[in-house]
Design brief:
Helices cover 46% and strands 9% of the residues. With 478 residues, it is mainly α. The structure holds one RNA strand of 77 nucleotides.
Amino acid sequence: MTNDIRVRFAPSPTGYLHLGSLRTALFNYLFAKHNNGKFILRIEDTDQSRKVEGAVENLINILNDMGLKYDEGPIAGGEYGPYFQSERLDIYKKYCDELLANGYAYYAFETAQELDEMRKIQQMQGKQTMYNRRARNLTENEINEKIASGVPYVIRLKVPLNEEIKFNDLIRGNVKIETNMIDDQVLLKSDGFPTYHLANVIDDHLMKITHIIRGEEWLTSVPKHIILYNAFGWQVPDMAHVPLILNPDKSKLSKRQGDVATEDYLKKGYLKEALVNFMALLGWNPGEGEKREIFSLKELVNLFTIEKVNSAGAVFNTEKLNWMNAEYIKQMDTAKLAEIVIPYMNTAGIDTSDKDKYNRVIFAIKNYINTLQEAPEHSEIYYSNVNLSEEQKDILKSETSKQVLNLLNIKTAALFEITADNFKPVLNEIQKETGIKGKNLFMPIRLALTSKEHGPELGTIAYVLGKEEVLNRLNILN
RNA sequence: GGCGCAUUGGUGUAAUUGGUUAACACGCCGCCCUCUCAAGGCGGAAAGUACGGGUUCGAUCCCCGUAUGCGCUACCA
């Protein structure tokens, strides 16, 4: 690549990784890796009131967990650190002073209450709510006096009036906004911390970010950023605003309508590979006749281009996720599956210490589960005692049932052991010898072995239970 | 309210630089397999591309308007 591609994922540490953020991170990662570029993690922790303990560690862990390893960032380090915005305060201050000196920014002294009132009045008048830019008219003396007497202040962006800002979004094409509609955004808060707008422009430039890929919610603030880039005389990076992820009712994906944290889905037993695969296809696809749906991270890296990202929001469809997760589970090595399912089994009170049996259980349930969390319920028949209802007992009391079960008992006892495929022939023998077939043959056995009308084929059930347990369950009936 | 963005079956998407019987996947329905439930195999219903105007010999694709949805409208990101 001629010039090095550098992108960043810049979350604020909220304590968990929102699915929308996951996808933004994923797209950044895919774009970087596809272009042999660098993927940078930067922590946007400029809001002191929203600090969450341990959030950053968690974020880093989950990102790594998902396979989205960053090249530069907290802990990993890099040439352009620090990667915490809270540790870059002096940098922001310096550039802010530069803006002030060159007339691109100005001091303002309104209190939060005053601004609230201003907005309320504007609202009542049906006007657009924005700062009325009145501090632009303060004289130098007034400003100096206020600062000297310790009045708290912020620094605002002096938005050029009566202009039109145009930019080209890699996903949406041309976008234009009148500067008169743009607020004189606060750049530096009264606590000395920068706002997102200031910090992100400075950091992206200093960190040599070439492409900004972020959520659609930022689209309307791009002009503010462009004004800043221009004020500094910096080149504006390319931008791509990815569509939002939506609830089934098309509102923005929110907690109220289900889980939104990546961690929640991992906990529920969705595989990270499946989750990544699924999220990638939300708002993006390789196009051009590509018929596959299942892609590894590596394949995604190969195929990903920003131009193929959609511009409309995408509904998060849990049913498709379930299907995809089931696909990954089916393809997974059984031993590996057995291992990662253990915690789910143990929480559900299933003892997995008999490894031989446990592995047979996993083999049997592999095609039945969409998520790891569903494993215990499908394993129950192999571990819990048979518990028949009165109705089921009646079925077993019938003449044919007795005949079948007695014969099965004898024939099973005669087997050295039950294997994956020697039980079915036994059933065939019984059918031949007794003339009983179909439901009358199989259902009594199914009930005797599991006390359930539904389940895997009997050969599998018997194999999982093993000879001893099959005989146990048959004998309990007597 | 203002500004911005979006709009292909229920959902996710596809459709060479405007010309296709509008394709694929999930879901749904049916059939096969089968003792049952899944899985798997086969097939089906489901959009004429939000609506209305243009441009064009011809628009899912280009332009305008309307509607709807979403986003932004903080000393939050």
